[in-house]
Specification:
mainly alpha; Farnesyl Diphosphate Synthase; two-stranded antiparallel ribbon; 17 helices; 2 strands; 1% strand; disordered N terminus
Length: 337
């Protein structure tokens, strides 16, 4: 980002997720029932693997954004529940595929599904969930919503391929990194919020809520990338240091390398490649990220996007749902503390 933003004064956001879950309790119960029902199949591996990863929990942030956007715009319907379920299926499918591509060991605090059912099973069940998501989208009866989420699915895939192509590219500009995370993460948050607004009956609120979702997604992913070099498995749900081991150029590394000495740059150039990485390199990488101030700079960037998300809500009518969406932006950044 080129502009400097002053984040809003932090609110008490520790219970933002719980408050949103409470407001959406009935809606979320309907979504959970659909998540189980629509994963049903005579092929046992499909409900078994779907239940394994969906049942592992996760925060359900994307479905909650969908539902809250609908309520802000006028109210949630059974069609909104189908839409929120589709959003979660798209997200879950990308996780199954990502764990194969990234060779991840953990997902949502559990052994990655690929270690239980294999790579082929993970890819194929992910494909099944994508297909189920599109069935649910059709059931909303809105071609516009179908267009929004099908476009988002395309953008997500492009983002993942773009990230794969950028692996090991140590001169990756910040703009390219932001384009990658906007595609692979923020696009689904944006689509979830926009489609939720339309499901709730308001075209007027679709744009501001979509802007909220996009910036929330950017803040969320930047914080996740920071946590990979200083968080815990309990918070991020996967192994700490996965991005480092996969050679992914994320914001903490980009900033640390840019600010570092020639010796530091030489370290990054060697350690970000698996064939030249040594034992203890992850610990040194974390040290450099802290010593150069890259950790703080990364979180400041996340706060700026969270602030943009909150500003997008300024034109949204006041309601308990809007207030909690506002607090959710603060919560997204507070995960790092």
């Amino acid at each position: 980002m080129t502009q400097t933003l002053t984040p809003r004064r932090p609110k008490s956001n520790g219970s933002a997720i719980e408050t949103l879950q409470s407001l959406l309790a009935g809606d979320l119960e309907a979504v959970e029932r659909l998540l189980v029902a629509r994963a049903a199949s005579p092929v046992a591996m499909i409900p078994d693997m779907s239940g394994y990863i969906v049942g592992a929990g996760g925060k359900r942030l994307r479905p909650m954004v969908t539902l809250a956007a609908a309520h802000v715009a006028g109210g949630a319907t059974p069609g909104t529940h189908a839409l929120a379920t589709a959003v979660e299926y798209i997200h879950t499918a990308t996780l199954l595929h990502d764990d194969v591509v990234d060779d991840s060991d953990l997902r949502r605090g559990k052994q990655a599904a690929k270690h239980v059912w294999g790579n082929s099973g993970s890819i194929l069940v992910g494909d099944f969930l994508f297909a189920r998501a599109f069935t649910l989208m059709v059931e909303t009866g809105s071609l516009e919503i179908l267009d929004i989420l099908s476009h988002a699915s395309t953008v997500i895939a492009e983002g993942e391929v773009r990230q794969l192509a950028a692996q090991g590219r140590l001169d990756l500009p910040t703009e390219d990194y932001l384009a990658i995370i906007e595609a692979k993460t923020a696009a689904l948050f944006e689509a979830a919020a926009r489609a939720g607004a339309l499901s709730g009956g308001s075209e007027t609120l679709a744009d501001p809520l979509a802007a909220y979702g996009k910036n929330l997604g950017l803040a969320f992913q930047i914080v996740d990338d920071a946590l990979d070099y200083g968080g815990t498995t309990a918070v991020i749900g996967k192994s700490v240091g996965d991005d480092f081991r996969e050679g992914k150029l994320t914001m903490p590394v980009i900033i640390a390398r840019r600010r570092g000495s020639d010796e530091d740059k030489a370290f990054w150039d060697r350690a970000m490649h698996a064939e030249t990485r040594k034992e203890g390199d992850l610990a040194h990488a974390i040290h450099l990220i802290r010593a150069t101030g890259a950790a703080e700079a990364t979180i400041a960037e996340a706060r700026a996007y969270a602030s943009l998300a909150q500003q997008a809500l300024n034109t949204v009518p006041a309601s308990p749902y809007r207030d909690v969406l506002d607090a959710l932006a603060d919560f997204t950044v507070s995960r790092v503390s």
